[in-house]
Amino acid sequence: MSNNNHINYIEFKFRDLEETKAFYSAAFDWEFTYYGPNYVAFSSSGLDGGFEKTTDKIHNVGLVVLFHDDLEASRQRVINSNGTISKEIFSPGGKRFKFIDPSGNELAVWTELPEEEPRPAV
User: Fold this and answer.
1) According to the model, what pLDDT value does residue 98 have?
2) R_g (Cα) of the chain, nearest Å
3) DSSP characters over 93-108
4) How much of the chain, in percent, has pLDDT values that exceed 90?
5) Which of 40, 46, 47 is nearest to 23 (CA)?
6) CB within 8 A of 66, min separation 6: which ones?
7) What is the mean pLDDT of residues 98-112?
8) DSSP state of 81
9) Cα gap 58→48, rounded to integer Å
10) Arch. (CATH architecture) of 10-111
11) How far apart are the first and last CA of the chain?
12) CB atoms near residue 4 (< 10 Å)
Protein backbone atom coordinates (compact mmCIF):
# COMPACT_ATOMS: atom_id res chain seq x y z
CA MET A 1 0.00 0.00 0.00
CA SER A 2 1.34 3.42 -0.94
CA ASN A 3 1.82 6.19 1.61
CA ASN A 4 1.17 8.81 -1.04
CA ASN A 5 -1.22 11.53 0.15
CA HIS A 6 -1.07 10.46 3.83
CA ILE A 7 -0.30 13.05 6.47
CA ASN A 8 3.37 12.44 7.22
CA TYR A 9 4.64 15.35 9.29
CA ILE A 10 3.28 18.50 10.89
CA GLU A 11 4.98 21.76 11.80
CA PHE A 12 4.09 24.45 14.29
CA LYS A 13 5.66 27.82 14.94
CA PHE A 14 7.25 28.81 18.23
CA ARG A 15 8.53 31.98 19.85
CA ASP A 16 10.47 30.57 22.82
CA LEU A 17 12.10 27.19 22.28
CA GLU A 18 12.65 26.25 25.91
CA GLU A 19 9.10 27.24 26.88
CA THR A 20 7.66 25.24 23.96
CA LYS A 21 9.81 22.20 24.72
CA ALA A 22 8.96 22.35 28.43
CA PHE A 23 5.22 22.58 27.71
CA TYR A 24 4.97 19.65 25.27
CA SER A 25 7.36 17.52 27.30
CA ALA A 26 5.44 18.08 30.55
CA ALA A 27 1.93 17.98 29.11
CA PHE A 28 2.31 15.15 26.57
CA ASP A 29 5.73 13.44 27.09
CA TRP A 30 6.98 14.41 23.63
CA GLU A 31 10.70 14.03 22.85
CA PHE A 32 12.85 16.48 20.87
CA THR A 33 15.74 16.55 18.41
CA TYR A 34 17.44 19.90 17.83
CA TYR A 35 18.39 21.12 14.35
CA GLY A 36 19.90 24.47 15.26
CA PRO A 37 18.49 27.41 17.18
CA ASN A 38 15.47 27.89 14.89
CA TYR A 39 14.12 24.35 14.53
CA VAL A 40 13.37 21.37 16.75
CA ALA A 41 11.70 18.13 15.68
CA PHE A 42 9.35 16.25 18.00
CA SER A 43 8.52 12.57 18.31
CA SER A 44 6.57 10.26 20.64
CA SER A 45 3.43 12.10 19.56
CA GLY A 46 1.82 9.59 17.19
CA LEU A 47 2.80 11.73 14.18
CA ASP A 48 6.24 13.27 13.96
CA GLY A 49 6.66 16.96 13.38
CA GLY A 50 8.62 20.02 14.30
CA PHE A 51 8.61 23.55 15.63
CA GLU A 52 10.04 26.43 13.59
CA LYS A 53 11.02 29.74 15.21
CA THR A 54 9.03 32.81 14.22
CA THR A 55 8.57 36.38 15.32
CA ASP A 56 5.38 36.69 13.25
CA LYS A 57 1.88 36.32 14.64
CA ILE A 58 0.99 32.63 14.83
CA HIS A 59 -2.06 31.52 12.83
CA ASN A 60 -3.33 27.96 12.97
CA VAL A 61 -4.11 26.19 9.74
CA GLY A 62 -6.73 23.62 10.68
CA LEU A 63 -6.87 22.00 14.09
CA VAL A 64 -4.55 19.26 15.30
CA VAL A 65 -6.37 16.88 17.64
CA LEU A 66 -4.49 14.63 20.07
CA PHE A 67 -6.00 11.53 21.71
CA HIS A 68 -5.96 10.67 25.42
CA ASP A 69 -8.02 8.04 27.22
CA ASP A 70 -8.20 10.18 30.38
CA LEU A 71 -9.42 13.56 29.20
CA GLU A 72 -9.57 15.17 32.66
CA ALA A 73 -5.98 14.14 33.45
CA SER A 74 -4.77 15.47 30.08
CA ARG A 75 -6.62 18.76 30.64
CA GLN A 76 -4.99 19.13 34.06
CA ARG A 77 -1.52 18.43 32.62
CA VAL A 78 -2.08 21.16 30.01
CA ILE A 79 -3.00 23.62 32.77
CA ASN A 80 -0.09 22.52 34.99
CA SER A 81 2.28 22.97 32.03
CA ASN A 82 1.20 26.62 31.49
CA GLY A 83 -1.21 25.95 28.64
CA THR A 84 -4.51 27.83 28.42
CA ILE A 85 -7.84 26.06 27.99
CA SER A 86 -9.59 27.83 25.10
CA LYS A 87 -12.73 25.64 25.13
CA GLU A 88 -13.76 23.46 28.04
CA ILE A 89 -14.68 19.79 27.58
CA PHE A 90 -17.57 19.34 25.15
CA SER A 91 -19.16 16.70 22.93
CA PRO A 92 -20.58 15.20 20.57
CA GLY A 93 -18.27 12.88 18.67
CA GLY A 94 -16.62 11.76 21.86
CA LYS A 95 -15.47 14.44 24.28
CA ARG A 96 -12.76 17.00 23.73
CA PHE A 97 -11.26 20.28 24.88
CA LYS A 98 -9.18 22.88 23.11
CA PHE A 99 -6.07 24.58 24.43
CA ILE A 100 -3.51 27.20 23.47
CA ASP A 101 0.16 26.41 23.90
CA PRO A 102 2.63 29.05 25.17
CA SER A 103 3.37 30.23 21.60
CA GLY A 104 -0.29 30.69 20.67
CA ASN A 105 -0.96 27.47 18.70
CA GLU A 106 -4.44 26.04 19.32
CA LEU A 107 -4.80 22.25 19.51
CA ALA A 108 -7.39 19.88 20.96
CA VAL A 109 -7.43 16.64 22.95
CA TRP A 110 -10.26 14.13 22.54
CA THR A 111 -11.42 10.82 23.96
CA GLU A 112 -14.10 8.34 22.99
CA LEU A 113 -17.39 8.17 24.84
CA PRO A 114 -17.56 5.32 27.37
CA GLU A 115 -19.55 2.31 26.15
CA GLU A 116 -22.45 3.07 28.50
CA GLU A 117 -22.98 6.57 27.06
CA PRO A 118 -25.13 6.56 23.90
CA ARG A 119 -23.82 8.35 20.87
CA PRO A 120 -26.02 11.22 19.68
CA ALA A 121 -28.36 10.47 16.77
CA VAL A 122 -27.28 11.96 13.48
Assistant:
1) 94
2) 16
3) SSEEEEEE-TTS-EEE
4) 64
5) 40
6) 28, 45, 46, 74, 107, 108, 109, 110
7) 93
8) T
9) 20
10) Roll (3.10)
11) 33
12) 6
